[in-house]
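Quick one: structure for this chain?
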Amino acid sequence: MILLLLYLFSFLLPPTMSEDVTTQTIYVGGNGAGNFTRIQDALDNITVDGTVYVFPGTYHETLRITQPIHLLGKDTKGTIIDGDNENYVVTLVADNVTLSGFTITHSKMMFPFAGVYVTSNHNTISQNILTDNFYGMQLGYSASYNLIINNTIHHNGRCGIYFNHASFNTLRGNIVFDHPVNGFGLYEFSNNNRIMNNTFSDNRDTGVNIRESYDNIITNNIFVQGHIALHKPPPEYHTVEHDNLFTDNVVSLEEERDAFVVTVVVFDISVFIVFLVFRKVSR
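Got it. Here's what it folds into:
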């Protein structure tokens, strides 16, 4: 009877009482038994919310992350993902990914390729070096609520970060320098982004270039430029800019004029001049 009661009671227990929730950690490189030699192979075998920990070395591959995981490099300068100029180097497809501790280099050197290509949301990208790519990073169409923090982004072919309809992202504490076009380029309705506490230097067109994008906040950044530090869209786009430090810039702050308004003004002036000319001739 006692055994029967114990048997019946076991069915009444909540199933979660006997479940241990664990996260997996697997390793790439190094000397450990069972370590993977390729990062993508580890990504293909990791469980959701697990950690892929990568030892120093140069990994010639392009990565595609399709589930929420933590991809961590042991040493930023010594743990290198080299795309061999073939594609995007690292593509974040899944939400809630952590990418930290790598040098990411050699994307395909043409539009629209980048060292890091983000097409998802709520990711954290930190403590990386992005260099010698076409774009250091591209925040792709509708990539939102991503945290890009404390990265060094330099010497890429066009821009440090290209925003392509990417909104509600936070970029803080990044060092962005030595780009022929823009440090950050926000284009075509990349709205409500927060750009704070970054340092921009020697980006030879513009440090931060915002066009046709609404309600972006630019605050507490340092701009040391050879040309234009910060380009803002017209006032109706509601850019918030304050407490930035501008040093040695040809133009520190440039505000765009609405093209329609400028056209109307020029047209009105032209009509008035023609009127005056004909009036004078008729006399």
